[in-house]
Amino acid sequence: xxxxxxxxxxxxxxxxxxxxxxxxxxxxxxxxxxxxxxxxxxxxxxxxxxxxxxxxxxxxxxxxxxxxxxxxxxxxxxxxxxxxxxxxxxxxxxxxxxxxxxxxxxxxxxxxxxxxxxxxxxxxxxxxxxxxxxxxxxxxxxxxxxxxxxxxxxxxxxxxxxxxxxxxxxxxxxxxxxxxxxxxxxxxxxxxxxxxxxxxxxxxxxxxxxxxxxxxxx
Length: 218
Hints:
The protein is of the alpha+beta class and 218 residues long.
């Protein structure tokens, strides 16, 4: 009887050792605390390295989206003028929150003018818009010391709305427009300009490259 009990205890002890051995060396049951800590530290490091690149990509997307939006709005206003057989214009204004723009239609046949807007003769079409409401960190703006788009032409100085002596960009019923340039500035000194060609009313977009300090078609 005693020998049988000894053999039973020996078998049980062997089974326990087998279980402990399997749990200590088997890799299919999970990871050790050291491995988990290493993986967590690696994830944090990779995330910290990737974050600036991600933010930069987001800023690129935002400013390009803003440029496309403004270009599209200009063509929508152009088509509005053709459809209405009347001058339709965007009036730009500087506010405490940046720049705003509003679309107006000529109400008395003499073009969209500031005085007629103030008198209520030229009525707005739609609400006042702020570019920064749609695209965070993007607005009409100019980098300091920005060179001219064309060699021999005047530099934009500090005014991003270049429409001659006015801040009104007008489109006519025949599809033409007043000429001018609208400068857009995003985070990280991302600078673009939308040039409006008066004869056709169409637009051309250029991007400023800070390294060579030159403009290129975007």
